[in-house]
Hints:
The complex is a heterodimer. Chain A is α+β, with helices and mostly antiparallel strands. Chain A has helices at 13-24, 41-44, 59-69, 72-76, 94-109, 120-126, 148-161, 205-210, 277-290, 340-353, and strands spanning 6-9, 29-33, 48-49, 87-91, 116-118, 136-140, 144-145, 165-168, 172-178, 181-186, 191-194, 196-199, 219-228, 238-241, 247-250, 256-259, 263-267, 272-274, 298-309, 316-319, 326-330. In chain B, helix 1 (20-31) links the parallel strand 1 (10-16) and strand 2. In chain B, helix 5 (165-176) packs across helix 8. Chain B starts with 9 loop residues before the first strand and ends with a strand. The interface between A and B is large, with 57 and 46 residues. Strand 13 (219-228) of chain A pairs antiparallel with strand 23 (473-474) of chain B, so a sheet runs across the interface.
Amino acid sequence: MAAPDVIVIGGGLHGCSSALHLARRGLAVTLLEKDHVGRHASGVNAGGVRRLGRHVAEIPLSLAAMELWHGIRDLVDDDCGFESHGQVKVAESEAELEILRRRVAELGTLGYSHEELLGADGLREILPAVSPHCTGALLCRADGAANPYRTTLAFKRKAESLGARIEEGRRVTGLRRVRGLWRIETAEGAAFESPVVINCAGAWADRIAALLGEPVPLEVWALMLMISGRLPPFIRPVVGTVARPLSFKQFANGTVLIGGGYRGRAERDRNWTELDFRGLAQSAETVWDLFPAMRGAEIVRAWAGIEARMPDDIPVIGPSSTEEQLFHAFGFSGHGFQLGPIVGALIAELVTGGRSNLPLAPFRVDRFQKGPA
Amino acid sequence: MSDLAGLKASYELAVVGAGPAGLAAATLAAELGIDTLLIDEQDGPGGQIYRAIARSPLGEPAILGADYWQGATLLAPFRASGAAYLPGAAVWSVSRALEIGVSAGGTARLIQAKHVILATGALERPFPIPGWTLPGVMTAGAAQILLKSSGLVAEGEIVLAGSGPLLWLVAAQYLRAGARIAALLDTTPRANRSAALRHFPAFLVSSYFAKGIALMRAVKRRVRVVRNVTALAGEGQSRLETVVYREEDGRERHLPANLLLLHQGVTPNLNLANATGCAQAWDERQLCFKPVVDGWGASSIDGVSIAGDGAGIAGAAAAEARGRLAALAAAAKLGRIASAERDRRAAAHRAALARAERGRAFLDTLYRPAKAFRVPQGDVVACRCEEVSAREIVAAVALGCSGPNQMKSFLRCGMGPCQGRLCGLTVSELIADARGLSPAAVGYYRLRPPVKPITLAELAGLPKSSEAVKAVERS
């Protein structure tokens, strides 16, 4: 078989989105996934489709991604379970509401108006079930949530329909240049060659970079989520808070997803995560405080995916700092799902034109190296 | 002990489940001086097989039969052993560090153990036929629970359907308790009989033989038994009204019924072991997944042993022996006895185990359920909690969902309160069938704690830690 134009390493959402957008531009793409597509963070995250509370550097990407989300069926021929009932960040005190006021003002000076400030009455209107002690909130009305595994699979299938080859069960163990081509070896024995490689290996992306000696200070962690039994519908938007880690939403079937930043233990060599019930207990306490309606609820399941996080909490997106024709997109823990549709498009722009239509400087891989930035 | 407040923070050995394996293990361990805690979901010891053995509501002991009352012989030694006992408690997590999450009486605690023996027993195999979710359709095992624990027997037109020893046992117990059974529809595939023949000599000399024959004769005298049933459905508007079945001639027959009791064997209850991370493997003879254990019941996780039917179906007598073997291994590991002593004491239990296992191959082969009753089609519900049909699962396979865990993410099947207990095997077999593979290649749900639902209040009441925010693997 002829060598593809591009090899993507990693079958998460960013890898599948990259494969899709590259294939749309007519490139021959092969994607190598060590387990199966959507096995880790992409398939088991909270599914938040959120512009709310983004790092300023991510806002242009997040806004562009949101436009793609609202036409997601046109992109991947599947609605991905996307529903848009807004995302809300709740303040539990006057001091926290002041933080939200300053955030809106800061965004205003940058020309953004997608985050809307609500007082106590406005909050009650969109979130009648919230505890009376809450003082206000930020709201992004057009935000929402989708089914993460279904989304990742939809990107994979669309990429395949455009000619991309998805190879599952291919763990990359070697990456080097041979006569101007990248040569990739896998644990299963098969070898692949192509002129361009995209590193979308998530919590394993530093290992891919390390094959070429490029240092990447990536942290591996496992954000925990849990889900309740069915409850009568009491909440529509996805809810977070200013000061406490929380991501909270009710599905159409009545079950409630509770997540938000407490970590289990990740063992990436064994594809294993161990839950820490002391952390889940913290989440439970937050929910207890914020939503009295939840106090009688049962928790039926908890889990955690293996995710990659960068020290400054924004991802790496862009060319390698040491190698030509190698591009990175990883380190998205907690905020990558919504960006998936646009990150693949940006990667395709970089590969085909050498530049992107959105500012990627804040996401340079060499930003962690010592010396002047 | 009646509540969690009386528990210590840690025990040398925690045994989960007070059926024959758990009772035998806890008793022997405590006798060997091990600081032992036995935790059980029920209000009294006995497990499923000896449910309510200590306080049976049935005035007439003969209803349940002599095998049931065998369970009583485990009670006095257990009570004398000094093992701590926590009934009415649900173990919802065992971590690889052997921290046990347990709930009782509306509160939860985390208890540390040095060794854990899981004796979580068996579950009835799913029986996904059209109409199996209708009110009026239940498992024979559930009917037996009502009989054992409350002395309740259903009235009206009762039909039993399926195959396996428990079906006949429940029929006999129901008859003794005064119930009228309209028919027993035997779904045992005809071809199984010739396949089982080569295991017959061992069965002939097993304890099962005489008992089984007597039981079946007693039932056949009073109940119409229809053999070689190849298709089965429950029908009715808002509840069961008719049982529809087919014999080998292909003709459809109808029986009026207001209760249909289904049963086609039991499989290991491996939810807790699975959630702990114990390796498991497909057993083609018993058509189920079971944990991988060595001759002492040791699982792939250091410090976690599995005894009794939870490690593979072999019955109550075998469970007792496997419980004692696991206890001996734990005692050696905890430094209470030398390994030579362990091996010396094990000999009698190994002999008992061999005796108990005699005849099992015959039963497994004879009562291996037909594919038609394991792999549903069309609109038949596979996952009851999330109401996912066989058709949806097959369609998802076509979209690229190649295993049960992808299915979970895609259709939410197995994500409800039962945590896959009622659909796990069905979903694995459906996917395997659609892909033309063995369930061994497709695998099983990866289950996660809590394996039993806990309330938000219980969870919020656990000790909290900001450590959880810092648990990062530095690379």
